[in-house]
Amino acid sequence: MLDVGLLLIRVVIGVLFIGHGAQKLFGLFGGYGPKGTGGWMESVGIRPGVAMAVFAGVLELAGGALFLLGFLTPVAAVLLALTMIGAIVKVHGPNGLWATANGYEYPLVLLVVVIAVALTGAGAYSLDDALSLFQAA
């Protein structure tokens, strides 16, 4: 059952990160693409906005895909953790913890989940397992 639980976590979190990356890179799912996201990033002090939007989008899209597949899971976790740390520090941190005040509650949950899965291992239903990569001790 542990492996099914890890698969569920990887699928949901991986798909959500892929979606966020697609919003930033391609304007899909209600996103604003690199130019719109970059403009918003500039407005909150993240410069250069378009380049940082593309960078964050690539981290989320690639990291989400790797996490979903359970392939190179520690690498995926680092990519995704970087985006969540950036979101906490640059966007949500000043608003406090709670999501109701646009705080860092949700990015913190995502950060902990990706780190925990990387430390635990992606589970039996993963490419890491199929290829004998990053086996949990």
UniProtKB/TrEMBL annotation:
Q: Which UniProt keywords apply?
A: Cell membrane, Membrane, Transmembrane, Transmembrane helix
Any GO CC annotation of this UniProt entry? plasma membrane
Residue intervals passing through the bilayer:
7-26, 38-59, 66-88, 108-127
Q: InterPro entries, alphabetically?
A: DoxX (IPR032808), DoxX-like_oxidoreductase (IPR051907)
Q: Does the keyword Membrane apply?
A: yes
Source domain of life is: Bacteria
Q: How does it sit in the membrane?
A: Multi-pass membrane protein
KW Metal-binding (keyword) present: no
Pfam families to which the protein is assigned, alphabetical: DoxX
Compartments reported by the entry: Cell membrane
Tell me which family the UniProt entry assigns to this protein: Belongs to the DoxX family.
Annotated protein name in UniProt: Putative oxidoreductase
Species this protein is from: Paenibacillus phyllosphaerae
